[in-house]
Amino acid sequence: MTSFGAKLALCVTLGVPLYALLRQTIRRSRRLRVLPRAKERVLVLGASSGIGRSVAEQYAAQGARVCVVGRRENEIQAVENACLELRTKHHADNSARPAIGLVADFSNPEDMVRVRQELENAWQGVDTVIVCAGASALRPVMEIAREKSSGKGYPATDDVQRTVDVAIAAERANYVGPLVSAVTFIPLLQSTSVSPSILLVSSLGAIVPAPTRAIYGSTKSAGLLLYQALAIENPTIKFSFMIPATVEGNFRASAVDAGTVREADPNQFGLKREDVAQRCIQAVDFEEKAIFMPGWGKITHLLYWLWPSAIERIAMRKYNFTHQ
Ligand SMILES: NC(=O)c1ccc[n+]([C@@H]2O[C@H](COP(=O)([O-])OP(=O)(O)OC[C@H]3O[C@@H](n4cnc5c(N)ncnc54)[C@H](OP(=O)(O)O)[C@@H]3O)[C@@H](O)[C@H]2O)c1
């Protein structure tokens, strides 16, 4: 290589990561400068457990005002109390209604408009919306269809309908919920925040196909693509997408197809929910677009198009899936 070529390669190797780091640092300081944590008003949809609960508690511990939303009343009350306690422990200020708990379904327009009214009344707006709620589905599609016929004959009308019902339940949680939330809160964010942000918790299953996750992955994929396009249509709002692999917790226990876990124990091998939550908050602060956890998730997406059979084999192994 000529000495000019070597210098150019060195400049690119050092310059590109340095530029990216500098750009992110400037962006971070920009959001926190115009919107310090103590002034930030955060809405977490799907906060009664898991990643959403941890996001809410971490924001509260840092002094932000948080509104937590979910359908289970007892859990929402508990998270509201925890957020109040964390806030008082770390920040003594008495801003009006520093933690709000609301029982609501994020796929129900009436519920979300009610949440918006509460936020307008209590805080006169919102700065950060974390869309965390979602539902799992864990079974191979043809297993759902053949559930009643024990694998014999062609699926009857009832069998096809059962499969459709499962897909509709997953779609309601993973696509309609994010849609209702976006339509309800985008105008409020735009008109009331100096630095409006939305983060969608998606999944690696939304961008890399996996057996037993056909319905889950495809409905999460629809939600992700919706938000990616909304980001282009609404450039005044910063959109971030958290794309984690398996996370610890009870997410799979409420699967809409009543499926069971086939992979290695998520509570032993999955990502820690606190780590995912912390990275969500950082992504919003840094105005990052897509965050993969772990980082190799980004490569699996690219690899699928370059060498699909390798990814298919890895996915089959991960989910202990064999063809019948
Ligand atoms: N766990 C994983 O392995 C994993 C991996 C990748 C991505 N994700 C994504 O991470 C997100 C959070 O999952 P998690 O692991 O934290 O599971 P989780 O503990 O089951 O949390 C899900 C939350 O969503 C809420 N929710 C579900 N449907 C809702 C609805 N219609 N309206 C309002 N709230 C609703 C649940 O509360 P209520 O039941 O009280 O309504 C709960 O608070 C999901 O979007 C999931 O797709 C999870």
UniProtKB/TrEMBL annotation:
Keywords linked to the UniProt accession: NADP, Oxidoreductase
**Pfam family, any one:** adh_short
Top-level taxonomic group: Eukaryota
Asked if the keyword Plastid belongs to this entry, the reply reads no
Q: Which InterPro entries match?
A: NAD(P)-bd_dom_sf, Sc_DH/Rdtase_CS, SDR_fam
Is Isomerase there in the keyword field? no
UniProt record similarity statement: Belongs to the short-chain dehydrogenases/reductases (SDR) family.
The task this protein performs is described as: Putative oxidoreductase.
Q: What is this protein called?
A: NAD(P)-binding protein
